[in-house]
Amino acid sequence: LELEITSLAPTVFYQLREDIGISNINFRESFSKHHLKDFTNPGKSGSLMYKTYDDLFILKTLRAYEARLLMQILSGYHLQLTQRTTILNRYVGLYSIRFPAFISSVEIYFVIMVQR
Predict the structure, then answer these.
(1) DSSP string, 37-93
(2) Of 11, 7, 51, which Cα lies nearest the Cα of 30?
(3) Other C-beta atoms within 10 Å of 87: how many?
(4) What is the CATH number of domain 4-114?
(5) What domain of life does the UniProt record list for this protein's source (predicted)?
(6) Beta partners for 38?
(7) 97 bridge partner residues
(8) Torsion of CA 19, 25, 4, 15, to 10 degrees
(9) Residues 62-73: tens digit of each pLDDT
């Protein structure tokens, strides 16, 4: 089954990861060797959630409007994370997935967060 994964705002998220001390090598390594661990307990949002094998990152599915909102606030969010002490979730990647083989291929969005 073929799929297309698109990194949204890759330059911004790359810089954000660097600014908070996450190297691109370490980031990729968390996803490259092992399966993700499902720990979904969908509440009202219905989001699916997964952890990387090393428990460093969480992947959470988003609705399209949530992904658009994150893109709209991204520059201010980046400043908030890097210049102030904050209790905000640390989002370090935003991606979309499509299955082009299907005529009505729906995009699935997910965000990657740092596990606290």
Answers:
(1) EE-----TT---EEE-TTSSEEEEEE-HHHHHHHHHHHHHHHHHHHHS---S--EEE
(2) 51
(3) 5
(4) 3.30.800.10
(5) Eukaryota
(6) 50
(7) 5, 108
(8) 10
(9) 999 999 999 999
